[in-house]
Design a protein that fits this description.
The complex is a heterodimer.
Chain A lengths: L6 E5 L8 H12 L3 E4 L6 H11 L3 E6 L4 H14 L6 E6 L3 H9 L5 E3 L5 H10 L3
Parallel strand pairs in A: 1-2, 1-3, 3-4, 4-5
Helix pairs in contact in A: 1-5, 2-3
Chain B lengths: L7 H15 L30 H5 L15 H4 L3 E2 L2 E2 L4 H13 L5 E4 L2 H5 L22 H7 L10 E4 L4 H14 L9 E3 L3 H8 L6 H18 L3 E2 L1 E4 L1 H5 L4 H21 L4 H4 L3 E7 L3 H21 L6 H4 L3 E5 L11 H15 L4 E3 L12 H16 L14 H23 L3 H6 L2 H18 L27 H16 L2 H15 L6 H9 L4 H12 L9
Helix pairs in contact in B: 4-6, 7-22, 11-13, 11-17, 13-15, 13-17, 15-16, 21-22, 21-23
The chains are: A alpha/beta, B alpha/beta.
């Protein structure tokens, strides 16, 4: 197969500085053969979407551990749609209670939500399987 | 003098024993500490031939303090049971604090929400969705007054986890104490105020390093003159460990930060013995029981040796590494969360056997949300059971002399010294931060650990082994979404009713002072007293100091 590498933006929206998960996942995606851009910390939703546009990514992975996911994820999804990035796969990871995760998926805001204990392999496989 | 000399008989029999067991099958490993340090089948007096009891251990309360910083340790009184908490607005958190004090907690520890930590008011656009979420929202002195309503600040000591804007929140606390009629010489507590580990691991910074360090040394100087019982900094390894470091990295990076603060104080013209006695530390208690105990013992010895030999401290109080401990949040699992009570118990026990001065035990549900009252009560009860039932606090440093514990304590010290040499080679802590040294070391360790868990080289019960299909059925604490609008409304009213001319002139005075070398604390104190908000004070300082930006790497 000779398709280009999957391009992923790993982004940390919100104010918290817990970047262990984001950086571990970024590295795992890179080791799985994807092209990974890491946004760095404290990004506003506008900054995340701006980077996604500029970097022409197919996947945006948001890492949120502050509890602000129900505000931030829908807002980023809306901005992606407004910028004609409806096709971009949005995945979320962090401390997300189950009912919130279900609401984010059911509402069409996130393709998948990963929480503590999910393996790196599971995350990589989920993303790759969307591009087979 | 050494108590363990060479012993040919033991050497011979040990050799024979080793041959015997090398033929026996071993269960799967890894036979390493959590941090990857190899662990032998057995330790004997032969491992301690180099140990010099008087020089390396001594008695509690005497140099090099390996066995504890106080003479009588827990025979005098137990450690302070200090649960970190805060959520919603000041009214919600005040209610939780008074509940915890009624349950027998002996000190308070304030968790602030992210806007407060990052220096934004609750009505700032960047605060959207974050107000009161993972701590309490504090915008002004008014909120601080509500937070400590009916809590006498001359009787309770308070720890505040605040770094970038530490000076501002500290001034609010001091102003509130004065309003309660409590003198500054009477108030006791701790501000975290450790900006170096923010750049290294926790990543909640505001200003660039130079002005941040200046704020810290201003606090050292002001406290030395006016607030003698305050711990002006809590030099923290906790976040370094949570970010994924090994135990030795936590130890080494934290103490290296400590030395950097000492050097900053000296560079600011302070005498080491005027501020070093108020430096305190904060470590993680992870799940590898012995490794953690050795880390605390090594930390005390290293600190004492460096302060005495390198920095010429004369006051014994300058040599004593006093520390708070929190059990490891990152060791908790979302799966079968009740198991976290057991993990926390083991970790808390290591902190106690390592001689901690105060302790926070995590609640079982903290991997899922902020803790409920029930979960936090079990966590506090865990400490009370260790103290009042287990008997481990009856004798001081009971694991001293263990062949394994002393060997591992020495090894920890050696590993830390090797890191100090490396940091020195890079040009010191600030240069090492600048080139991403700490950040990369921690990221590497975190990735290695996660891979080991994914490959099942390291087992985590309920996560990659012994799983059950059952989903956790815990009742979780929910933050009322109305908190944000309530807090924004309170702030709006405050801005209307306060004396805005006084606020403007206080902020102008602050900016002028920030551009000089004068101590900033009196100006910040004046600004908070006329109800300038945290965000306003931070903005004023940002105009002079600028903001920090990190190079993102992974």
């Amino acid at each position: 197969m000779n398709r280009r590498k999957i391009r992923v933006l790993v982004a940390k929206p919100g104010l918290d500085g817990h970047d262990r998960g984001a950086r571990v996942v970024a590295r795992a995606l890179r080791d799985a053969g994807m092209e990974v851009i890491y946004s760095g910390l404290h990004q506003t939703p506008e900054q995340v979407v701006e980077t996604a546009l500029q970097e022409d990514v197919e996947v945006v992975g948001l890492s949120i551990l502050s509890g602000a996911h129900m505000t931030l994820v829908p807002k980023i999804k809306r901005l992606l749609v407004e910028n004609s990035m409806n096709d971009v796969l949005l995945v979320v990871g962090g401390i997300i209670p189950e009912e919130d995760a279900a609401a984010l998926i059911a509402g069409g805001f996130a393709g998948q939500v990963f929480t503590p204990g999910d393996s790196l392999e599971k995350i990589c496989n989920y993303i790759s399987s969307n591009f087979e | 003098m050494s108590y363990f000399k060479s012993n040919p008989d033991l050497e011979a029999s040990l050799k024979e024993w080793q041959e015997k067991i090398s033929a026996m099958a071993e269960r799967p490993g890894p036979f390493t500490t959590l941090s990857g340090v190899p662990v032998k089948q057995i330790y004997t007096p032969l491992d301690l031939r180099e140990l010099d009891y008087d020089a390396d251990l001594g008695l509690p309360g005497s140099y090099p303090y390996t066995r504890g910083v106080q003479e009588n340790m827990y025979r005098g009184r137990y450690w302070t049971m200090r649960q970190f908490s805060g959520f919603g607005d000041a009214i919600d958190s005040n209610r939780r604090y008074r509940y915890l004090l009624e349950q027998g907690q002996t000190g308070l520890s304030v968790a602030f929400d992210l806007p407060t930590i990052m220096g934004y008011d609750s009505d700032h656009e960047r605060s959207l969705g974050e107000v009161g979420r993972c701590g309490v929202a504090i915008d002004s002195l008014q909120d601080m007054e509500i937070l400590f309503n009916q809590i006498p600040l001359d009787q309770v000591t308070t720890s505040m986890t605040i770094n970038g804007p530490a000076a501002i929140l500290w001034c609010m606390y001091l102003a509130n104490a004065q309003n309660q009629g409590v003198g500054l010489h009477q108030v006791g507590g701790t501000i975290q105020n450790d900006i170096l580990k923010e750049y290294i691991a926790q990543k909640s910074w505001i200003f660039p390093p130079e002005p941040s360090i200046r704020l810290i040394t201003d606090i050292f100087a002001f406290a030395a003159d006016h607030v003698p019982k305050w711990n002006t900094i809590s030099i923290s390894g906790y976040h370094i460990r949570e970010a994924g470091s090994t135990a030795a990295q936590e130890l080494a990076f934290t103490l290296a930060d400590g030395f950097a603060y000492v050097e900053a104080g000296l560079a600011a013209g302070l005498n080491v013995d005027t501020f070093a006695p108020r430096l305190s530390f904060f470590f993680n208690a992870h799940i590898d029981f012995f490794e953690e105990i050795c880390k605390y013992r090594a930390a005390r010895r290293i600190w004492a040796r460096h302060l005495k030999e390198r920095y010429g401290a004369k006051d014994p109080r300058s040599l004593k590494l006093r520390f708070h401990t929190q059990t490891a949040g990152c060791s908790l699992t979302a799966q079968e969360p009740e198991n976290n009570i057991v993990r926390t118990t083991i970790e808390a026990l290591s902190a106690v056997l390592g001689g901690t001065q105060s302790l926070h035990t995590n609640s079982m549900d903290e991997v899922l949300a902020l803790p409920t009252e029930k979960a936090v009560t079990i966590a506090l009860r865990t400490q009370q059971i260790i103290a009042y039932e287990s008997g481990v606090a009856n004798t001081i440093d009971p694991l001293a002399g263990s062949f394994y514990v002393e060997t591992l304590t020495d090894r920890m010290e050696q590993e830390a010294e090797a890191y100090f040499a490396k940091i020195e080679q890079l040009g010191g802590v600030l240069k090492a931060i600048d080139c991403g040294f700490f950040q990369q070391e921690i990221a590497d360790a975190a990735y290695l650990y996660q891979q080991a868990v994914d490959k099942r080289e390291r087992l985590v019960v309920g996560v990659n082994s012994f799983n059950s299909e059952e989903k956790p059925q815990l009742e979780l604490l929910k933050i009322d979404p109305a908190v944000e609008s309530r807090q924004v409304e309170r702030l709006k009213k405050l801005r209307e009713k306060r004396d805005n001319n006084a606020v403007c002139s206080a902020l102008a005075g602050l900016k002028v002072c920030a551009a000089t070398n004068e101590n900033l604390i009196p100006k910040i104190l004046a600004a908070v007293k006329c109800y300038a908000t945290e965000g306003e004070i931070v903005s004023a300082l940002k105009e002079v100091f600028g903001e920090y930006r990190e190079k993102p790497l992974f």
